[in-house]
Automatic annotation (TrEMBL):
Keywords: Metal-binding, Signal. Its cofactor is Ca(2+). GO terms for molecular function: metal ion binding. This is Glycosyl hydrolase family 13 catalytic domain-containing protein. The keyword Metal-binding applies. Residues 16-103 form the Glycosyl hydrolase family 13 catalytic domain.
Length: 132
């Protein structure tokens, strides 16, 4: 039975792994698609914050580790190999301009010093102001 969408569920992992995606590749082909755009693959902040957790892939905390919630390295390799066997391209979303919210000291090299982040947290209030 499908669970109702809640504020909590929208800000946390809801499933989906590379191994699970392999099982759906034939269905993707049947729908006529030839590319899949996947979330960024680095490890993400997975502690509870006021913003939720980094389920979406844009709060990387270690660029040298894969996101454990999506699977292991070999799972990703197998997913790509299986997709290519079906002439499906895999597009990897890469986020080079930011990491997770500065709510932890668990960031790894090269993001392991607080002076590498905007201090204090600078939220945009006026999106028409380009200097903000």
């Amino acid at each position: 039975m499908e669970q109702p969408i809640t504020e909590y569920s929208m800000r946390h992992y809801c499933g989906g792994t590379y191994r699970g995606a392999i099982d759906q590749l034939d269905y993707v082909v049947e729908m006529g698609f030839n590319a899949i755009w996947i979330s960024p693959i680095p490890s993400n902040t997975d502690i509870e914050t006021i913003y939720g957790v980094g389920w979406h892939g844009y709060w990387q905390d270690n660029i040298y580790q894969l996101n454990k919630y999506f699977g292991q390295e070999q799972d990703l390799i197998n997913f790509i190999d299986e997709a290519h066997k079906r002439d499906i391209w895999i597009m990897l979303d890469v986020v080079a301009n930011h990491v997770g919210p500065n709510v932890t000291n668990n960031y790894y090299v090269p993001f392991n010093k607080s002076e590498y982040f905007h201090q204090p947290l600078c939220l945009i209030k006026d999106y028409s102001n380009q200097t903000e």
